[in-house]
Design goal:
Layout: H1 3-7, E1 34-37, E2 43-46, E3 73-74, E4 80-83, H2 89-99, H3 105-115, E5 119-124, E6 127-136, E7 141-149, H4 158-170, E8 174-180, H5 184-191, E9 196-206, E10 222-225, H6 231-242, H7 247-254, E11 260-266, E12 269-278, E13 283-290, H8 293-304, E14 313-318, H9 322-330, E15 335-345, E16 358-360
Parallel strand pairs: 7-8, 13-14
Antiparallel strand pairs: 1-2, 3-4, 4-5, 5-6, 6-7, 8-15, 9-14, 9-15, 10-11, 11-12, 12-13, 13-16
Helix pairs in contact: 2-3, 3-7, 8-9
Length: 369
């Protein structure tokens, strides 16, 4: 079954719940021209330009009595809160640009599609000044992220208003999230309960010039474009990491026109997959899942080979990944750690089944890993 025909089928799959992130975002200019890259696998990418990224993640609701969302509630400093809709993508992207996240507009649009009716928008004088994404995995598990306030509105309580609105509606669910260590006390005050701590992730950015592969290691593997494989096999493989199938989510994330996704095969079976897409400062790589260290490196090298040489690449990498630590050591002069983030849950943190095999996260806004 082909990739496009498979994903035209409607699936009813168990939904998962996304993690609450907060960040300072990066500026986003207009889309660059699409180019063809010379590679063992044909690649189409947008070249991306601009200066530095400053991301930080966000998390954390508390259990409160669930109540319905008010469609137009008065917020701080004349701000009103309402449900988001697809026509809000340009406005959210503009706030993302102002806040300086290293993110492409395609990602904002895809997050809107993934979360469906799960955006809360803060608006003032007809302009979007903040937002929060929520994503439902199932009735007990929800994540949230893409919490942004316009720099002009910081200090006026807009972020707190967004967060408390989220808590009032969805606080009974277990919420997985990420945050920087210096934010623990702040979000525990919001949630009113101790956070259930999880795994540690590093935000790395730089030019990856070296992949420390043993000689002939690549001969044991085959790499295919995602469109060339049976998509039901890919969905099953992805579910082994997240614990539940999520075909519609994969359809949206891997189907972005600006993304490139490769699948790693070993002895004819899927042994990993990874995706890379443009950001405004270079590229963002994620997810990358693979069964072992060598396979991870083979897949990582293939993805990096698809982009222009010496491009900046951003990765959200779990500290537990062995291949990641070896690749970082081999590129220590050109790749730097930006910040450290802690996974947590409001009620009980449950690590993904194959966390140690995660080289790079799927999405901090719409994924457990």
């Amino acid at each position: 079954m082909s990739y496009k025909s498979y994903f035209n089928i409607s699936y009813r799959a168990t939904e998962l719940n996304t993690s609450l992130n907060k960040g300072t975002l990066h500026g986003i200019p207009k889309l660059a021209t699409k180019t063809e890259m010379s590679s063992p696998i044909t690649s189409r990418f947008f070249r991306a330009v601009h200066d530095q990224l400053l991301p930080a993640l966000f998390g954390g609701p508390r259990p409160v009595q669930q109540r319905s969302f008010a469609s137009d509630t008065e917020g701080s400093q004349g701000v009103t809160l309402r449900r988001g809709r697809m026509e809000d993508v340009p406005g959210v992207w503009q706030v993302t640009e102002e806040a300086k996240w290293n993110m492409h507009q395609d990602v904002v649009e895809t997050h809107f599609k993934m979360s469906n009716n799960g955006w809360i928008i803060a608006e003032k004088d007809g302009n979007i000044v903040g937002c929060l994404l929520t994503y439902k995995f199932n009735d007990d598990l929800r994540t949230a992220g893409h919490l942004i306030m316009s720099p002009k509105m910081r200090g006026y309580g807009v972020g707190g208003k967004l967060m408390m609105t989220f808590l009032e509606e969805f606080g009974d669910a277990n919420v997985h999230a990420s945050l920087t260590k210096q934010m623990f006390d702040t979000y525990e005050r919001y949630t009113g309960v101790p956070l259930s701590m999880g795994k540690v992730v590093g935000k790395y950015s730089g030019v990856f010039k070296n992949t420390p592969l043993p000689p002939d290691a690549e001969r044991s593997y085959r790499l295919l474009d995602v469109t060339k494989i049976d998509q039901s096999d890919l969905i099953d493989y992805d579910a082994s990491y997240h614990g539940v199938p999520r075909p519609e989510k994969l359809k949206l994330w891997l189907g972005q026109t600006t993304a490139e996704t490769l699948v790693l095969l070993e002895k004819g079976k899927i042994a990993g997959y990874g995706s890379i897409r443009p950001a405004m400062n270079g590229f963002s790589l994620g997810p990358l899942y693979a069964e072992n260290t060598i396979g991870t490196m083979v897949l990582f090298k293939a993805l990096v080979d698809l982009i222009p040489r010496d491009s900046n690449v951003d990765i959200l990498m779990p500290y537990a990944n062995e291949a990641g630590q070896e690749i970082l050591k081999a590129n220590e002069s050109t790749v730097k750690l930006f910040d450290t983030y802690q996974k947590f849950a409001l009620k009980c943190y449950s690590p993904p089944p194959k966390w140690n095999n995660v080289f790079s996260l799927f999405s901090n806004a719409c994924g457990k890993c």
